[in-house]
Amino acid sequence: MQLRSKLLALAAGLAFAASAQADIKIGVISSATGPVSLIGIPQKNTVALMPTEIAGEKVEYITFDDASDPSNTVTLIKKLISEENIDALVGPSSSPNAMAVLDFIAEAKVPTLAPVGTIAIVLPMDDKRRWVFKTTQNDGLVADKLFKHMKETGKKTVGFIGTGDTFGETWYKVAQDYAKKYGIEIVANERFKRPDTSVTGQALKVLSAKPDAVLIAAPGGPAVLPQATLTDMGYKGTFYQTHGAALKEFIKLGGKKVEGTILGGSLMLAPEDAPDSNPAKKVALEYINAYKDKYGEVPATFGGNMYDAGLLLERAVPAALKKGEPGTEAFRVALRDELEKVKDLAGTQGVYNMTPEDHSGFDERGVELLTIENGEFKLVK
Asked: How far is CA 128 from CA 140, 228, 259, 380, in A?
């Protein structure tokens, strides 16, 4: 009788272990502190709004803050892979951090949903990048909107100033392509570091080139500094910003100095202005309202990038579960394959249509041309 009780207890323990093993583990790395925290905080907060169960399986989120430091991101991804045996990664928050972990996620075959700006994380497609799916608009979609507007409003020259990292360098390459497409000449090209407190030297060089417009490529708070500096120096041309500046804090930090800025971003910045025919409008408003209910404020679009990662997992996981158990390579491979098949998924930022060649999946519906009027984002009509 005693032996039978022990066997039953052992069987129950094994059943419990098997069910625990079946939980889907999602690693989350965000930059909730440091220079990129304006992006990382809404992303960290959004995890609480992501699915906790998919196809009957519990989803566990294991979250870390990399303090905006790529070396910390590397340490954390190694920990998540070796100690937690994660099935997927959502994060990190910034482009340099994402590029820093590319080798590790590819080697471990961990599908990754990266809410970062740079197109370099998914292109050119290769054996490493096939494990990454980007939940932000590709730079080219945004650049096309910006340079088309420059052309239509009579701009002939533009000065460029960006961060001296993956985000800024990639954006300069994209800017060159679209400047050529629309017949715009880039007459200045400057860089600065995200933590810098002064860009006087770079601003003077841009100012001396007398451009009709200035394009600033920087994510989050650092996007304000070059624009504020040039404004203080008396620059009267038009400022353009990338989707890296698409957050309310950009307006709060810049104040009157960012009025009239033209930027490309998601309809999340002005959802009420978007037509009801845009399938992303409903999802964006649902997310915004859920975030407001929980945190008492409107989320930055970067939080939406995290929320969309949850929607993508919700779409891909059920089919992947038919091909492997969570915690196994078979499941991770199947999940990657299913993410690549996602079609017509409306998110907060646009509509996702993934392909083997395109791991962002957005079309022109994923980018709106916006301006800032009286301290608010408005769609450019």
From this structure: 21, 39, 41, 38
Q: Domains in the chain and their CATH numbers? A: 2-137+283-363 (3.40.50.2300), 139-265 (3.40.50.2300)
Residue 245: DSSP 8-state: G
Cβ–Cβ under 8 Å, residues 313 and 27: no
Sheet containing 262-265: give its strands across: 185-192, 157-163, 213-217, 238-241, 262-265, 368-373, 376-379
CA distance 138 to 259: 25
The pTM of the full predicted model, rounded to 2 decimals, is 0.83
For 313, counting Cβ atoms within 10 Å of its Cβ (0-12 exposed, 13-18 middle, 19+ buried), the class is buried
**Do 33 and 24 form a contact (C-beta atoms < 8 A)?**
no
Q: What sign has the CA pseudo-torsion 103, 106, 110, 112?
A: positive
pLDDT digits (tens, 9 = 90+) for 311-339: 999 999 999 999 999 999 999 999 999 99
- 3-class SS at 107? helix
Separation CA 213–CA 215 (nearest Å): 7
What is residue 358's three-state secondary structure? coil
DSSP H or E stretch at residue 282: helix 279-295
Spatial distance between the Cα atoms of 61 and 51, rounded to a whole number of angstroms: 10
Identify the pLDDT of residue 275.
Answer: 87
DSSP state of 324: -
In degrees, to the nearest 5, what angle opens at C-alpha 23 toward C-alphas 22 and 29?
Answer: 140
Full DSSP string of 13-31: HHHHHHHHHTSEEEEEEE-
